[in-house]
Amino acid sequence: MSRSAHPAGPRHADVLPEGHQLPVPDDLNVLDPKVWSATTERRADGVAAVGGIDVRDLAARFGTPLYVMDEDDLRARCRDWRAAFHNEEIDADVFYAGKAFLCRALVRWIADEGLNLDVCSGGELAVALSAGMDPARIGFHGNNKSTAEIERAVEVGVGRIIVDSFEEITRVAFAAERRGVTQKVMIRVTVGVEAHTHEFIATAHEDQKFGMSVADGTAAEAVRRIIKLSHLELLGLHSHIGSQIFDTSGFEVSARRVVGLLAQIRDEHGVQLPEIDLGGGLGIAYTGADDPKTPADIARELTAIVRRECDVADLRVPRLSVEPGRAIVGPSTFTLYEVGTVKPLPGLRTYVSVDGGMSDNIRTALYDAEYSVALVSRVSDAEPMLARVVGKHCESGDIVVRDAYLPADVTAGDLVAVPATGAYCRSMASNYNHVARPAVVAVKDGNARVIVRRETEEDLLRLDVG
Ligand SMILES: Cc1ncc(COP(=O)(O)O)c(C=O)c1O
Ligand SMILES: N[C@@H](CCCC[NH3+])C(=O)O
Questions:
Q1: Beta-strand (E) ranges in 371-428?
Q2: Is 394 a catalytic residue?
Q3: N6-(pyridoxal phosphate)lysine modification sites (predicted)?
Q4: Fewest CB within 10 A of the end CB: N or C in the chain?
């Protein structure tokens, strides 16, 4: 069953922000494979299914809102990244960035699929360790790790600590010395790149909190200090330029400056550091308008860039590592919501309220992130209506999908789903308005299992001591 192309063209186009294009889809019932996980499909009865399970069954069994993770899709992405960076031509490590989403099941899957793990807090480290992740395959990040976090990381033997400041160099050296061990470290350097992404998720320009600057000599000074400390082994340099980036030009500048610093270190200290890490940040498709590169293309481009820069600097090509988070977990998941109320504003748009909101997806409010949405519990032949999908929180900025077309007959009780919510949605979820955070359910081959359970009223009251 499918609706024919809407002949009237965009409705309400005048209420979209200037320059904002929102083409009316030819068929609102089609689930665009660009944004939906690999096993998501529209079945013959018009209902969407994922991992072989009808979304209505998922809603009935587990409730809504619900993060639905497609395990096959997730694992395939892990394998694609691993294969792209680890083959006859390229020998590089992929560290999955756990900040995008982390739970024990996921840690086991990524480890199974040959990925390492980047954590950036004691809490993330605890999840990784409790899932049995080999500490040697963990990199520990953060611009202000506490002494307790550093002590624990050294104690359990994490493979690398990415130091972000002079204070941290001293703290890690002290923790290693007290235990009589040598801790491998990398230096997070700031390369002065303005990544083409939202200001809040760009991380390599000078005026922000992360890293030590290449330009002002702080990073070179960090190298001098680390080299003198016998309980630290300097593995290399790390640069992460930002997030949701589509072109590799930022990485090109970053690699050039990192390799430049490697050459400076060779000239000054007579050593070549063995590794560079170019961080994560590769973009995904949130809407049909986004065109992300494949892991194979990214691997080819990044390694070519590093080789070329090393050639120019007359350096051996160092081992490369990368830290994708969003690109691995983002597209694997959609959030399933039930529609509660529909408020048409003739000539403007229709507000479709769902049973979650900014507590399960803060990205729209925080970064102006764009998402798409589809009616998934049925198909519809109704004409497209310009909709804004909003949540149930006490904020007018509580928006999940700012602008999208939904069929005009969307009504209370319908299920809608927002794709590409695997990254930075559950991991940034809150209990605002004392709303319980949703469960994460993994689906595969007709089976569904809860990997993070839904919070209960008891959970919401648990910390209240008055
Ligand atoms: C150091 C570091 N590595 C990796 C990532 C992962 O980024 P993304 O999920 O955009 O790939 C981040 C987050 O932006 C980060 O700060
Ligand atoms: N949380 C951000 C990305 C920043 C990740 C950490 N540096 C997002 O949702 O896009």
A1: 374-375, 384-390, 399-407, 415-419
A2: yes
A3: 99
A4: C
